[in-house]
Amino acid sequence: MSTPEPASSPAPRRAPAPQRSKGFVVGRVAGAPVIVTPSWFLAAVALTFLFLPSVQARAPHLGAGAYLVAFVFVLLLFASVFLHEVAHALVARARGQKVTELAVTLWGGHTAYTGGLRGPLDGILVAVVGPLTNLVLAAGFWFAFQASPVLNVATYLLWAGALSNAFVGFFNLLPGLPLDGGQILESLVWAVTGRRTTGTVAAGWVGRVVAVGVLVWALVLPIVQGGGLDIMTVVWSALIGAFLWAGAGAAITNGRRREAVEGLSAGVLAVPVLVLPLGSTVADAFSARAAADRPRRVVVVGHGEVPLAVVDDDAAAAVPEASRAVTQVDAVAVPFVRGSEVATGLAGTDLLDHLAGRSGGARLVPVVDGGRVTGVLDLADVARAIRAA
């Protein structure tokens, strides 16, 4: 499960995670920590007891050893899930993403990455490689099972490994978020419509259909086949269905939020400015502001209209009136971070990525148009606009 919204068993999370999952760091892959979360231990115990009756039925002579065999199968299953996540991480990094973590969790696992998908192809490649890894593993387990000359516990584990990997692979290819197949559907709709948000919302709604389908399958199929309901199957299906429903709903919300964020531009959010050359005085700044038709920030520029600093209004007001004509304006100005200037037409996630990577922690950055500074962007205003969106 890849998590820009963004691969595991049975359902992946796609969205890049802003915070690291809590758990034990057991290694690193693609430059990111591999984390085993506390919930994994609960899953390992539950799946061991779930698999135990099958082992006891096929190998009654094992006695207490059946617990060990069941646990070995669980370890094989999670190893397959881990390889699924490794595939996501390696392809995500190859496509220019920064992988932030690989986590093994109650639901299998997820891979989180940041950087933003550059296009539909990135989304398809990152998503599809996880399930394909499981299908390749399923084929390998199956051929090893077929080649085994005897039927014993080891060959039974090969058969179970083939079946579980095939299930994880095909299940993750179902076309609804938060599954990998949902990310593929999202990317295909994105490619056709040119709007990623349209793809996200569509794949989210299909994900809700898949969530309902999982529960219907657990309840209706046994009745159609003339059998009774298995309570464990119903419980697990309900849990998985609830997880998928919540993930699909989150995907729809994130898609709509992304659409709102895409409407935010530097030019609209910026405060207009008055430009003063380096060497001007505080008195010049007050005179310029008094003549302005509306409130404006004062920006100090150097040679070639390069924005150097923005006047701190409180600091300027603190200069005694008698000293303003001899106090240079740069003495009461806050320097801009070099290279932090934003083009007036920059918008959406491109704007946010620029601010995250180039602002250097500064609150104020200059907005430029054709090499001329036209405004000052306050990151607090950007944050407020995002929350409102």
Written overview of the protein:
Helices cover about 55% and strands about 15% of the residues. It is an alpha/beta fold and about 400 residues long. It has two domains: about 25-260, no CATH class; about 265-389, CBS-domain, CATH 3.10.580.10. The strands form two sheets. A seven-stranded mixed beta sheet has the order 8-7-6-5-11-10-9. Strand 1 (about 25-30) and strand 2 (about 30-35) form a beta hairpin. The radius of gyration is 28 Å and the shape is elongated.
Question: What's the helix and strand layout?
Answer:
Blueprint: E1 24-29, E2 32-36, H1 38-58, H2 65-94, E3 98-105, E4 108-114, H3 120-147, H4 153-172, H5 180-193, H6 196-224, H7 231-262, H8 266-269, E5 271-277, H9 282-291, E6 297-301, E7 307-311, H10 313-317, E8 333-335, E9 342-343, H11 348-358, E10 364-369, E11 372-378, H12 379-388
Parallel strand pairs: 2-3, 5-6, 9-10
Antiparallel strand pairs: 1-2, 3-4, 5-11, 6-7, 7-8, 10-11
Subcellular location: Cell membrane
Transmembrane segments: 30-52, 64-83, 124-144, 156-174, 205-224, 231-252, 264-287
GO cellular component, one term: plasma membrane
- Give me the secondary-structure category: alpha/beta
Which strands sit side by side, in order, in the main sheet? 8-7-6-5-11-10-9
Task: Count up the helices.
Answer: 12
Mind describing the biggest β-sheet? 7 strands, mixed
CA-based gyration radius: 28 Å
The average pLDDT is: 88
| Number of self-contained structural domains | 2
Strand content: 15-25%
- The proportion of residues forming helix, as a percent range, comes to 55-70%
GO biological process, one term: proteolysis
Protein name: Zinc metalloprotease
GO molecular function, one term: metallopeptidase activity
Keywords: CBS domain, Cell membrane, Hydrolase, Membrane, Metal-binding, Metalloprotease, Protease, Repeat, Transmembrane, Transmembrane helix, Zinc
